[in-house]
Design goal:
This protein is an all-alpha fold. It is built from 14 helices and no strands.
């Protein structure tokens, strides 16, 4: 089996195991789903009707496979709370969450790769020590503190950007949408940069101690020119770490969406968990799991292009 085939099989197996885990965890939670939806004063007839309508009266294996096969056909079910199709709700929320995560990750990867190389070159200088200290400090500061500080400066003090919210018409108001996402994107990017800079710096230091660096210097290149040739070597592990942290990044995005009052996927998921909308939660988590594995597959392919030695 080729490398691509192995990755696809591994990803599919991971997604399948994740569906089993998500379904099992949500079903072992205490309390009855129908009672949680209709309340303790609901009549037995109303409870039975709701269970029949949503297939909750079937056996657990039957519920699982029905949900799985429906999801494979693109049907993620309907919400227990408002009866709306879950797929439409997820797509609508991705208008906020997807740009937030993608743009912040792109900024974080570019900045941390460049900054990590600069810090490695000037590791003994004052600027290098200050940059290293700031990256360590960034790891210690909670994300919501970063967001609140940015709001205090750019929204309250200088009144340059909105403190939160998102246009009702969404991306049909592109200027307002971009302004609403600017501070959240910077918040999430700064949080990622604090971690990724350490890996970029470590990889750059390894390159400075390698034969490849000495060969480049012997060929007449300056130190800056020589380390610039290590862009791919530095970028590859940074991308890998970013892909491995996608699930944690989604958790951080929930915090950012809460701080800036954004109607994103994370805030929707938190609300649905609080409302005990189990069917919607499990389908939303399935979409998130699929996205995580898709990102990791893409990063694997990109790394193969960045480092041909990985190809077999």
């Amino acid at each position: 089996m080729s490398g691509v085939g192995r990755r696809l099989v591994t990803a599919l197996a991971g997604i399948l195991l994740s569906t089993v885990f998500v379904f099992a965890v949500l079903r072992v939670l205490p309390g009855d789903i129908a009672t949680a939806r209709l309340g303790i004063d609901a009549t037995p007839e109303a409870l039975a009707q709701l269970r029949t309508e949503y297939g909750l009266d079937r056996s657990l294996p039957e519920q699982y496979f029905t949900w799985l096969f429906d999801a494979m056909r693109g049907d993620l079910g309907t919400s227990l709370v408002d009866g709306r199709p879950v797929r439409g709700e997820i797509v609508a929320r991705l208008d906020v969450t997807l740009p937030l995560i993608m743009v912040s990750s792109l900024i974080a990867v570019i900045v941390s790769t460049w900054l990590g190389r600069r810090i490695a070159l000037r590791r003994k200088s004052v600027s290098g020590l200050v940059a290293t200290a700031l990256s360590q400090l960034g790891l210690a500061i909670p994300t919501f503190v970063v967001g609140v500080c940015l709001i205090a400066v750019f929204a309250v003090q200088w009144q340059l950007l909105p403190a939160g919210g998102f246009p009702v018409r969404g991306w049909r108001e592109p200027t307002a949408a971009l302004r609403s996402l600017l501070l959240p994107v910077v918040t999430l990017a700064l949080t990622q940069c604090a971690m990724l800079v350490r890996f970029a710096r470590s990889q750059s230091l390894d390159f400075l101690a390698s034969d490849a660096f000495r060969t480049a210097r012997a060929a007449g290149r300056t130190t800056d020119q020589a380390i610039d040739t290590a862009r791919r070597l530095v970028l590859s592990p940074v991308l890998t770490i970013t892909a491995l942290q996608v699930s944690a990044l989604l958790t951080t995005a929930v915090v950012v969406e809460s701080v800036f009052a954004l109607p994103g996927l994370g805030s929707m998921l938190v609300r649905d968990i609080a409302n005990r909308d189990v069917l919607k939660v499990q389908s939303t988590l399935l979409a998130v799991v699929f996205g995580v594995f898709l990102v990791r597959l893409i990063v694997d392919f990109v790394n193969d292009r960045l480092d041909p030695r990985r190809l077999k």
